[in-house]
Fold this protein.
Amino acid sequence: MNHYLVIKCGGSVFDKLTAAFYKSIQTIQAEGTWKPIIVHGGGPAISQMLEKLQIQTSFHNGLRVTTKEVLEVVETVLSGTMNKQLVASICGAGGKAVGLSGVDGHLFMAAPSADPDLGFVGAIASVDPKIVTSLCNKGYIPVISPISMDRKGQHYNINADQAAAAIASALNGRLCFISDVPGILVEQDGKMQTLAQVSDQEIASLIENKKISGGMIPKVLAAVDSLRRRVPEVVIVNGMNPECLIDYTKGAQVGTRIFLEQEALHA
Ligand SMILES: Nc1ncnc2c1ncn2[C@@H]1O[C@H](COP(=O)(O)OP(=O)(O)O)[C@@H](O)[C@H]1O
Ligand SMILES: [Mg+2]
């Protein structure tokens, strides 16, 4: 069996990922059971560039409000600098990585997001995974920037968690979020603890009670959405531990596993 493993690398952890982490992606592919696909964000690098150019931005529910001016910077940084850095790091570890964005080969078809206050923030209306599966079948590791366009050619800023969830759903693949935290953290007995697993219903109440906030909101919502659309398993793991991906593919319990409540009822 050959399964797709969508690995979403968060911008938050980008600077801290080591050569050993990139090597683990190459190792997983070389072992042959899994076909890795990388989707990446780049929040901090985008913020730095916007600051340098003195362009103001703000966030709304963990998503960046995107004017036309902001969109240009987001695309330059994500589909340019960040994408090529990641490709270079995987190639440096011996993997054959190819960079692309949602625009290429019409991988993602975008539509404006439901919230008009977000500007050019898009949602993914449909996925054509052919470009990605062709690359995987030829032994390449696709590295995807989430920027996408609609049928008219308008580009949109798309949250990388949502893009990762969309490609994982289209390929019936597993989804692994690499972030700068060991998983979903909650306070227990006065200490922050990582939840080993959490259901969609628990997530809804954690968000309502503000125990999950900022960038963790789009991540968990994308996770739940993907589970409802054919993704068999979603985990959030810490990129600081270079072994996390290998451990995960070997069946170890890592980070936080997200599941649907109805799954538990049928188990
Ligand atoms: N309950 C929570 N558990 C863990 N992280 C949380 C939680 N609530 C909010 N966060 C924040 O979410 C961040 C991860 O989201 P984000 O910064 O968007 O990372 P990424 O770049 O991986 O998408 C964490 O660094 C943390 O600050
Ligand atoms: Mg994020």
Summary: The chain has nine helices and 16 strands. The mean pLDDT is 94. The pocket of magnesium ion (ligand 2) is lined by residues 10, 41, 43, 161, 215 (CB under 6 Å). Residues 3-266 form a domain with the Carbamate kinase fold (CATH 3.40.1160.10).
